[in-house]
Amino acid sequence: MPGIFITLEGPDGMGKTSVLKALLPKLTHISQRPILETREPGGSKIAEEIRHILLDVNNTQMDDRTEALLFAAARRQHMAEVVEPALAADQIVFSDRFVDSSVAYQGAGHEVGEQAVYNLNLFATKGLLPDLTLLLDGPVEVGLQRIQKYRQNQNDRLDQETLAFHERVRASYLRLAAKYPQRIVVIDATQTLSDVVSACQSQLIQHFPELFKEAFK
Length: 217
What we know:
Blueprint: E1 4-9, H1 16-28, E2 35-39, H2 45-55, H3 64-88, E3 92-96, H4 99-109, H5 114-125, E4 132-137, H6 140-150, H7 163-179, E5 184-188, H8 193-207, H9 209-212
Parallel strand pairs: 1-3, 1-4, 2-3, 4-5
């Protein structure tokens, strides 16, 4: 597809949403192409309904494989309704989470199997992977402290996981970064927000100079 697909990934509390909120306004006014911001799970009506099921704190009996399948189903619907049409229209798509999240959270965190979850999601995306993934990384304890401080009563079902679960998630992300260094760039998320945004800007300039160079002069 002619568009550009960029994803932000990382363990909980690493600031993906805040980085996108600070970064995208700088791009929107200058980019030579339209920019679409989206998220997973969700991003479209049906996918958002699946998101509600996945994050509902009352769904404590959800089977781990059911969870993996629901994430893949939400992703497929999101791809069909939002991502694929935007890329076909030559847009730049920024997504808060994508396939790597499922590999890390369901594949490693819930120990369903990283390769099995990866294969499942390649089916869901028809083999499409991002052009660039910015992986915001930091110690698990830092992320969990941020969640406790800033989310307060907004915690969802996945926030109830154990420390060991989150450690497995982070380790999986770092394995993915080592396996796919041309696609995944690790950003130190323990820096200040402005420094993290600057680091993301530098990577965008490096990978897509024709699109973003002028945006950050």
